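[Automated response] Your request has been received and processed.

Submitted sequence:
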Amino acid sequence: MSSSPLLFRTATEADIPPLITLVTSAYRGDASRAGWTTEADILDGQRIDAAGLQADIARERSVILLAEVDGVLRGCCHLADEDGHGYFGMFAVDPQQQGSGLGKQLMAQAERHVQQHWGRTTMQMTVIDCRSELIAFYQRRGYVRTGITKPFPYGDERFGQPRRDDLRFEILQKTLEPQA
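Generated structure:
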């Protein structure tokens, strides 16, 4: 990673095209294989679309947090205040930057955001439950498996085109450390 500082800001509609590029590169197709977060073996098609991003940006108590180095988008996540918890989703780091510590910094900033802006003390996320390496990554960062699952939205191409028929989401949760 560059020696330049990592800067955080919230996304605007002008950020939608680079967000689509970043998230797609982290999760879909051959480009995603440069990192370890690829879903290319279980899903084809799109990971996000402009309409969904626009809705997340416009929605109350919802932000897309960007991580930039020298003005270049290197990571992002979607945060929302949902059902009494912070929600953490759409976490993506440039495949060439994965393993650099950028993702850990972005996660820490996301946790601070939900505490400072919405007063939430827990964070939840959904992860495709067959992604054991990804679940292990989140567990090392304090998230626990809840055992609560949700069906994968088969037939809704906004979530991609499944390459297998056993996909489902599991909710992970973390109790956030009090802010000093």
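Summary generated for your ticket: The mean pLDDT is 89. The first helix runs from residue 16 to 27.
If you did not submit this request, please reply to this message.
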